[in-house]
Request: fold
Amino acid sequence: MKNKFRMLVAIVTAITFLPCQAQNSSTSPKIENYNKGELEIKVAPFGLDGNEILVGNILTDGTIQFSWPDIDLANYESSDFFMNHLKKSIGMNFCHDKKMEENNEEIKAVNTKDLLLYKYGQYVGFLQPSTRKEFSDSDTLETGSSFSWYYSNGDGKFKAVCTVYEEKGGPNDVYEIDKNNVLNTTIYEIDFKKGWNLVEKSLLELKDQKRGEELITTKFKESKATIDQIPNNINWHLKYWANDELLEKEHQLISQTPIAKSQYENWLPKSLGDFKRTAYEIGKELERMPSTDNINIVFEKDLQKIEVTIVDCAGNKEAASMYTLMADMASSEWKEDSETGYQSATKMDGKPVMIDYNKKENRTTLSYSANERLLIKAEADNIAPKKLWEYLKELDLEKLTD
Reply:
């Protein structure tokens, strides 16, 4: 039995790993046509929310540099929840026929799965290492290999062959195994060392098989094996969703100094057009706004009122995020009508502005950004959007940030 097992493993290993062994080198991998700047690479085998582990960087030219750290599992309270015995962690869950040559049940391991990418502390994408030319998910029906890193709490081996047969209905609706029809065979050649281990998962062979009256393509032969080095034939597929322009802006805002209370006081206008200032407050607690670096001013004339809130988003990470969120929401024009009025994003004198207009109550709210750091929200009673905008243009915001 062991001889047959070793022969099968040897054949599959030769098919799967000879090209990788022939191309192993100490050269750093690289992403082709890369233009995203320097990024951090992290993994989260024990969950997110502060449990991410820095394992490398992507340089500005796309060169990938890994530096897998020694970790103390005691520092991760959830590690026991995520780690499993070798058989389960490597994904051998169901077999009709399993031939196991080695199985160390003393150690536990966890699959890191994704290589997460961070820029300025924000999650911006992920990397998928694969021999396939295009990005693929776990259900892909294309031969080739994908790669992931596992963390193991000790040395251990797992060597097995798992076979799944077709099942067909028998008497009394009891399903019977048809050993003449193999659906899938998976070879496991795992040799973990304590720490980080690289595993190559390969889809070796596809097969068209009948399922009832239907002919479908299935994963006929697969393998999972540890490898010592990153092969040179890997394609590094980058999934990146961050808006770099807004991300850079947010980073710049965080590094700037907020407007001082004295600056607000020296700038504070007594009027807005023919409206007189009737109240103001500096450092107001605002709903859904984390920063108190702001000024709130009320202007009134007869039955009309304009309330302007100016928030300085400098020096505060959450406020800077609000600034870029507003810029993103107002970047494309749109309009939604309702029974009482409309909401829209449009340009007023070339500046992106978000409008919320209640025609029934004749109430207007305009929201926009200014001076590369300010968020402005103006609410008005008995004033239409275009008229309110004409008043807001009289605010000397340049003087406030000088």
